[in-house]
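Researcher: I'm comparing several assemblies side by side, and this is the next one on my list. It has 640 residues spread over two chains. Same procedure as the others: predict the full complex and return the structure.
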Amino acid sequence: MKALVFKKVRAPIAYEEVPKPESKKGQVLVALKAAAMNHREVWMTKGLYPRLKSEVIMGADGAGLVDKRAVVINPNVNWGDNPGHFSLAYSILGMPTNGTFAEYIVVDEDKVVDKPEHLTFEQAAALPLAGLTAYRVLMNKCKLKAGEKVLISGIGGGVALFAFQFALAAGAEVYVSSSSDEKIQKAIALGAKGGANYQEEKWHKNLGRQVGGFNVIIDSAAGDGLGKLASLAAMGGRIGIYGGTRGAINNLSPQMIFWKQLEIYGSTMGNDEEFSDMVDFVDQHKIVPVVDSVFELSDGNLAFKRMSEGLQFGKIVLRI
Amino acid sequence: MKALVFKKVRAPIAYEEVPKPESKKGQVLVALKAAAMNHREVWMTKGLYPRLKSEVIMGADGAGLVDKRAVVINPNVNWGDNPGHFSLAYSILGMPTNGTFAEYIVVDEDKVVDKPEHLTFEQAAALPLAGLTAYRVLMNKCKLKAGEKVLISGIGGGVALFAFQFALAAGAEVYVSSSSDEKIQKAIALGAKGGANYQEEKWHKNLGRQVGGFNVIIDSAAGDGLGKLASLAAMGGRIGIYGGTRGAINNLSPQMIFWKQLEIYGSTMGNDEEFSDMVDFVDQHKIVPVVDSVFELSDGNLAFKRMSEGLQFGKIVLRI
């Protein structure tokens, strides 16, 4: 079968022929119809991912057929017994075990769930890792309630967009931030109540005056900006952090944290139950993932280029 | 009656004759037997406290008699309807309303609870504000469970010592940190499993090797040290922040926060229900507050001096 294979750091991904896997007892063979990219695959090519192994088929996200059953794949490998955090044995499909950028994959039979009928394979393949991360941090960590005010920073990324769509579906009033006015306008077209460009001076003060305090803030930048986000939180606000692209948190006022009784939750991925709950939530609310672009599997390196440029609004999908 | 009255910033507290208050319907007159100091009174004298008003009787903590009933006073004024955070109308006895450093105080009748019988008035007076803050952050925010490993930073302060005693009573394995070896030894004598002097280089690495990760960390320093505390947290660890004596949080890794799925809770004071729960907990576990020293009310300025030097281990109490 054909697959996109990780060779080594700072080298192109190889589109090549590899052996078709075979399922054992308790496993299923999925004929993949679509897969989707995450930032982790770009980090792998830059050497910024743990336990890198060459000759591994990349990709965490996939949807396809088990015989005639249409499924979405749960990318968790060995989450473990504690729903609160993953075990030491945990990993995600696509490193160090083979992933979804291939014609076939074998996974444990409890790792596939029915594809929501309202989604195409390409839309369904966009769900797994980003949807799971967004669902856990927004719904189970920050415990979003209907009617609350939510700020999603860095709109356009996969997790940010799912958090945005899930918050809307949950009945929240959702605002976004971005360095791109175009992305903010796209989010407003999708239902955002407003947005702010964080490259503008005093953006947070203007947004704070407009909104009057957010109950929930979802961020993956951290860095110097987290203090500004905290200043935008309402009393009793919850901040979910699922990334740290801007590096170490600096200049964050502890007085603001304890005075406003803020809660800050670190969260990444989610457990198997959260995966099922997330797909059910998508099905129930007929949420359609935002797909930025679709590439053929053989054009994998073009998809990697698109992802590393950071211009996407939604998920980058591979058609298989 | 005699009272300790706030006059102005950077001036001595006045011990002087003031009118005895009178209770209205729904209020009680408490004949105070003892009061206790908190850092906030020192901050007032330095001008570092909001809404300062001169001619106010200071003091949040007190115990005394309502007729023949021995009571402890809940220092909350107008917490409000939301148990999650206080209302805009919230304050604490002793600024801007009159406090406990006096022979008498009038409070709403629902703001007194029975003094635990195993405590003297001086011990009971040590409980309110520090006990309430410690109880909320440790039990209701960080949700400490029996058998967990806990680190209390800055042992010796009122809140830190109550958090320490409550954690022990709840069946946790408790460690402490301090800049003073003497305070660490005192904590070990009281039941701490171990401790570390944070002025030593690599103290956190040594403590981490010894303990292997804390489930709960209670801190009031913040600053550059919070990142070291976070590095000591176990997977799924909870960090409670109730102060920020070292200023802004810097150099805190977001990757550590989301990878370990940490939860950071800002917390200060507590609601009225938490106050009752705290006094019940103290009663049930027969906890005896650590009293550093007892001064006569007329020696109030000596008590302030002791507090501002930071040498105390436990609460500084005023006998009335």
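Model: For your comparison table: Chain A has two domains: 2-127+289-319, 132-266.
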